[in-house]
Each structure stands twice: as C-alpha cells, then as structure tokens.
Fold each of these.
Amino acid sequence: MDFNFKLTAEKYQKELLEKVIPFWENNSKDEQCGGYF
C-alpha cells in the first residue's frame, strides 16, 4: 500500500477550506457576548 502525501494533503486542505471552516464561521459566533466560541 503506497501512501501519497500530496494527495492526502490536498484532500484535507479541501475538506478544511470548503466544509470545516465555513461551518464554524456560520455556527460558532456568540451573538450575546460577541466573539466566537
């Protein structure tokens, strides 16, 4: 089994930038006190 670091890094980067970060930007804002959780 060969491990392709570049392919794996691209997969994680895409997941982070397209799903994880947008989710937390939209769902972690503290409307009552300001800032983010």
Amino acid sequence: MTESYDADVAIVGYGPTGVIAALTLARYGVSAVALERDRDIYPRARAVTVNDWTMRIFQDLGVDERIEKKIDPQRALRWVTYDGTEIMRVEHPPSTLGRKPRFYNIYQPTMEIELRAAAEEYGDRITVHYGAEVTGITQHADGVTVTSADTATGETRTVRARYAIGADGGSSATRDGVGCRLLGDTNDVTWVVIDCRVKRWWPDRDFLTFWSDKERPVVDIALSAGNHRWEIPLKPDETPEDYPTSDEVWPLLRALGVTEDDVEIHQHAFYKHHTRMADTWRQGRVFLAGDAAHLMPPWAGAGMQTGMRDAHNLGWKLARVIKGELPESWLETYEAERRPNAAFYTGLAVQLGRVIKQELSEQEQAAMNAVPQDTVTPFEPPLIAPPVLEGGWIRGPLGDASIVGRMVPQPIAGDAIGRMARLDDLLGDGFVLLGADVDPATLLTAEEKAGWDALGARYVAVRPKTAYTHGPEELVDVEQLRVRARFDGRGGVRVAQ
C-alpha cells in the first residue's frame, strides 16, 4: 500500500527550535508542517544572545544577513560586585567561524519575526498551523500521526508525516506522549525578569554584566533594538504577588542606580531555573529538540541556541535520510552528537551561576580563571571557545592535541579563478574532505575512499596563497589561516594534512 503523507516531517512547536527545524528541512529539500499552540510570537524577550556558531547555522540557512541587521555585537562579559570589584571578565576575540564578533545581543521577539518571515518564503514546503494544541501522537511502521485541536474552535486536525520533532518546550506534550522522562531538578528561587526600553545611554551599558552577590545577584543585559533587561532573584519572603505592576518593580531598579530617566519598563515576568534532561531524545520516529529535550539555567546564554543547534543537526540528517541520500542509521548520530554538547553547556551554566551567587571558594574561583599549561591548542575560555564533538560520527582520539571533532575555521577563501567568499559558501552542500596543500584523496586507502565516495564526498585541496592551484575545484587560503578540522553538523567535513 502506498503511504500518504501531509508532509515529510511534523514539527510540534514553532518557537526558535521549531522554526530552525523547518528552515533546515526546507533548505535541504523536504517538506515540514508545524503545529503551534500560540497564535502569535511569545512577546517576552527570553534568550538574550547568539554567537558565531549559531550565526554559521544562519549562514547555512541563508538568513544570516537579514538576522544580522536585527542584532547588535556584544562588547564583553564581566562579573562584578556591588563595590565595583571585577571578579572575572571574558573578552571576545575576533571569531574564526565566519563573523568578526563572537557574540551578539538579540531581542528575541524581533529575531523570531525575521526567522518566520524567512520560512514563509519557502511557500508550500513549510506549512504552519497556529492555534493548534497537540492532543496525541501515534506511531506506525512508516510514519507518525499527530492529532491537534484548534484552541479557538476545538476543531480536530490530523497530520500524517514520516517523522516528527517535538520542539514544544519544557512542558512538552510530545515528550510525555511518547513516554520520555525529564530528569533533573528545579531551583526553588523565583527570578523577576524586567524588560525595558532604553531612553538614554549610561556608562558601560554595552557590557553584559553579572552583579555578583549572595543575597541579590543581578543579570544586567543590553539587548538589541534599544532594549535592556535585568534579572533579579526574589528574596525568600517575597513572591510574584508582591510585584503586580511596574510601580512595585521600580524600587528593584532604583537600588541598582537605574532611574526613570534611563529606561521605561516594558514588561516583567517570573521564572525559575531548571537543570533537566530527557532520558532519551528519540522514540521510534519521534525526536525531541530544544527545551523538550533539555532545560538549563540561563548563565551561559546557551538555552535557545542549543535548541537551534539540535534542530539544525537533526534537520539536515532527516532530510537526507528521507531523500534516500543517507541510510536511516544516520539518525542515531543526532543524540550522540548533541546530548554531550547540551550537557556541557548545562554544566557550564551551573558553574557560572555559582560565580554570580558567590558560591565558589577562592580556590575554585582561581581554578576557573586559570589557563591550562602545556596545551597544544591555544586556550580559550569554555564559554566562547568553538565547539568540539565528543560523540557521534567521528573517528580517532579526542583531546587537546587532536583535531578530531573540532570545528574548522571559516576564513575568507578564494576559488581557482579568484572569486572570494567565506569558506562554507565556496564549499556548498554535502560531504567534503579538505587537504592542506594536498589532494586529500591521495591520502586515503582504497577502502576509505570507497566509503567517502558512497557518501558523495568531494575532495578539495586548499592551497596557500603563495602557490598555484592545480584544478578547478581547489581553493586558496587567502587569509593564511591553516584549515584543520570540521564537524559542524552540516554535512561533515574532514581534513587530510
């Protein structure tokens, strides 16, 4: 019997994770239908930053330039006490991943509007049903049926797809519906998030500042589009009911030296920090991504970004499996690659939270600021360092002296006839082996080459700019940045040296 599908992939939830999943699937040639409970974009600014890795994903999806117009470069991070003592600072050196800034400040609702607008340009390849509350997910041998009800009329809709992605947040109905368990803890402290419109500039407004204090630590963040945010914990004897309007919130800002001359309070909300992860991110043909799979404290600025990276990683793999370009077993690499990275950022966020709450001993603080000795790879603080894969589709030893699992830099490169562009744009899609001044195919055994050939891989020598190219497919390292290794979740690029 011929199966009938409404789309190749059903996506439950259409926040940042869901829309990146839809864009990736459409970008790689398959269709998606998204079911979103809310009819409008969530109006509160939740995430506050994106970095060069996320911008590289936007580049792959063809939306980087339009997003860059909506966000602002971030100056630096600092941790200070109320008496002005600086505990720690993280400067942002120029990025090696294709953008000069490492980090950008965002205003999430504005960024989401732009991402959804980009998705609309795919026409029928991306269909979105707003006001659709998912009520059930049923798996079959060759597909998934998702049932939803219209939040206004109660009308029932069923969507038939080959696979489904649960991107419906921390209270995911998808996760519960397929029997995955969310493990971990929730911190009892309630935080108030105060979003403001800026009325005038004040000194060092462009730092992302963590005011470190045992009783009242504060997160002080310049957002894009003239917005600013403070996140402040409530004391044990305080509750959200003590802050019903902006009038009650203002004393919290005045205590920080912020006045009505500086900002106008736009909105405020309350939340608690979660440190949780699903026991598995896949059940059959249903996958979890973003907050449905993992919840982390906000201190590393990685919650939303981790979800978008999940969606991109899973999206291109699903697309190529659906198109018959990769075997179904490739989907097993999704969680293997993404879970360790989500766990890394969760642990980093917890540790940075201890800094802002002054929970670290002097020895722990010194260890956190220490630069490792006798390392081969130049050290960068974990918060800003390029990612490293710890599992999944990699081969060879991991470690400081190894290039395995590391993301290749993205310099401006040239092709054989002199056209210059960022490396990813010159390489295009698919699997590529890069050789530093050598044809990488010549370094493979017959068996190894057969394996790469089966994936449709291309073999590209990257020549120094002081040398000749020897073929039309070769590239030139114009910026003289020696290409080393790459695994960015896009198609897997390795280097032979």
Amino acid sequence: MGGRLTLEELRALAEAGEIDTVLSAQIDMQGRLMGKRFHVDFFLDNAWKESRSCSYLQATDLEMTTVEGYQSVNWVTGYGDYVMRPDLATLRRVPWLEATALVICDVLDPKTLEEVPHSPRALLKKQLKRLEAMGLRAMTASELEFFMFRESYEEAEASAFQKLNTFSAYNGDYNIFQSSKEEDVMRAIRNGLAGTDVPVEATKGEADAGQGEINVRYSDALTMADRHAIIKNAVKEIAWQKGRAITFMAKWDTDHAGNSSHIHQSLTTLSGEPVFFDPDAEHGMSKTMRAYVAGLLAHSREITYFLAPYVNSYKRFTAGTFAPTRVLWSLDNRTAGYRLCGENGKAIRIECRIGGADLNPHLAFAALIAAGIDGIEKDLPLEEVFLGDAYSADDRADRADRDVPKTLREAIAALEGSAMLREAFGEEVIEHYLHSARWEQHEADRIVTDFDRRRGFERA
C-alpha cells in the first residue's frame, strides 16, 4: 500500500517540486482534522518537530463555539497554545489535493510537554498502553456509512438543507447497476484513499436511496482510528471536488435510514497471535474473548455517549432499521447491539453496531477497549447468547440496562455514573466530556427548529 512517506522522502519530493504543502493536523473532539497548511520548506526546517495551535480546539463544539465552563481551557487561562507534535509514522501523500502531504499530530501541554489527557488520540493511546501491559494489542475496523446528494455543499446550505435529492432514487443496497451511477465519485474515493495508505477493501450501496458504505482493512486500533478520521475528511473533500455533498449525520432525514459506524474488535498478542480464538470452545470464543464481550455488555450504556455524541445520534435507534435498540450479543445477527463475526475461525471478532457515523473514532475505540479491559480484569461471566429478533425480544426485556439509551440525556446520566470510565480515563477527562455533552444538550434545548415552526406556527 503506497502513500506513506519518510521525512527523507518528503524532502526529496519537495526538492523535485512534487510536494509543496504539508497539512499538519490534530484530531479534535468531534473527530475532525484541525490544523495548518505549511509550506513544505518551513515544515522540513521546523514544523516537523512541533508547531502551535489554540487550545480551544480541544474544547469547542461543531460550530467552533468557545464554550464556557471547561476547567482545562477557558477565558481565565487565556486560551493559550497547545503544542502540535507530528507523529511522523502518519506522514503520507494526499493524492486528491495538488502537491500535498498530511501528518497527524499529538497534542501536548507546552509547559510539561505531556500529551493533553482529554485529547482524543491521547485517550486512545492510554487504553492501548493498558492493553500492552497485559501483553495484548487491539485490532479494529470501522465501517462508515454516508448519504450522497446530487447537490453540492454550497447548494445544500443555500437551500437550508431542504428538499435535497439523494444521488440514487431508490434503495441500491449491493446493487451494482445503481452504484455504477455514482462510480465517478466512489472510484475517486477508493483510489484516493489507497494512495494515502488507507487500504480500502470495497465500497457498496447501502440500505437506502443514496446511501453508501466504505470498508477498510483491519488494523491496529490507533492506525485504524487515524484512518477513520482521514476517510471522513477525504470523502467530503473528494465529493466536494466532484460537485456533490455527502453527510455522515447519524440521521439526516426522518424517513431515511441512519448512518452507522460498526466497529469490529479483537485482540492479539504483541507478536500478532489471535487471542479471541479457541478452536475447542463454544463458537470458537476463547475465555479472554468471553470476558471482553461481557465487559462490553456490562458497560454498554456508560460508553454510549462516545458512540453517539449528539442529540441527533439517538434518532437513529429505531426498530427494524438495522440500528440496534437492545444491548445483547448474538451470532451473525444484525438486530443485536453486538454481533459475533467469524465464528469458529481465527478471524473471530465482535462487532459493535451501536455507533453512528458521527462518532469520533479515537474516543469510541478508547471507550470500547476500556470496557473490554474491565471485563478481562474482573473475569466477568458472559451471559447466554441471544437468538432471534432483538427488536421484539421478550427475555431480558424487563431489564432497563438492556436498552440502548434513547436520548443524549440518558447517555449523559449513564456516563456521569460510570466508575469504570472515571478510573480508565481519569476524573478530569470524564468531566471534560460531560461538559461537552451537556452543552450539546443545552443548545438542542435552546434552539428553535424547523420542526417547531412546522408543528406550531399556525396550529399552536
């Protein structure tokens, strides 16, 4: 897989006139790439070591509001700088942008030069270090769903996002002919990502008109999280270049399906041997895997905020739409919150189906891994596998902890009471993200919507 660069290769490409710009970007709380475009000469002289960015990038909402009330960053602290330190292992070409390379940065406190604990990449790395101390490594893959529209982003905004036309007129799930109509965009996405060391396995039509999915090769969790962030940025940029708009909203329209981000997980030894597989065990699930999955189930409600971070995220959880409503594990069953894949084989893994395409991959992976670690450390027993339609399940239905939270408020309450996450992430980190969640709910409660006007303008 091409696309990765060493510093020496970048220097040679710069001298040959093939690269003149380097994007130096951190991952923000929403999972976006945020940073600067450096002239390649300055990057090679200085910025490859470090650069600076405003600390508010790790304390804003989707609209870049300077939200008051954060303890780590506020008007009293003066919104000073954080250090952006490039992780040179992530340096790569960006084929869909002219003469451009990209590097992902860690975010450091300028006084201590320690990673800012609430920054998403630091949070994930902390959980991976916990696994490493146990002799384990996390492997993940996230599947991203999205809708593509005939309108451009500019046209969509000019119409106040009303009466948008999905690129296809009918459900094209797995339909080759239908997906051929959008191949101009999808081929550019596949080839562009392949050229930047994001190994795309396939794209396909998904379960509604205009919906698509992109599948990427399994990888270690940090690499996959970085790739996930790059994918979302790339898909939007390439679609924009082609005059189309794409959304990763969890639920962009009442009558259309939601956008998921299913997350596949397994563990290996540090040398790469699969840990989840036991050929002599039921379903091929090792003792470690059973405990890990038990941890996911035990803490699923507590970690839901990191899988569904916005008010809109919870509108996706509707029965009969392939989005889960129950915290159950099952075999190859798309109605359950957790699906066992690769049964009785070395590729055995657990798929979390709760997350939406609006999640931050670094935060989501970190939360899932923390829950799994807790299951392993406490040797939690795994309940019996659920069989059947999880949407209409009667057994275990009387337990409130079996329901995926129905609202952001529910998820906030579950996060607030999570002793596991407070220990795994740290008290200050959890309070940081609780503040972010409460602000999101506050804004949704405050702002008058089109729904309000349509329902009450005349009738109320």
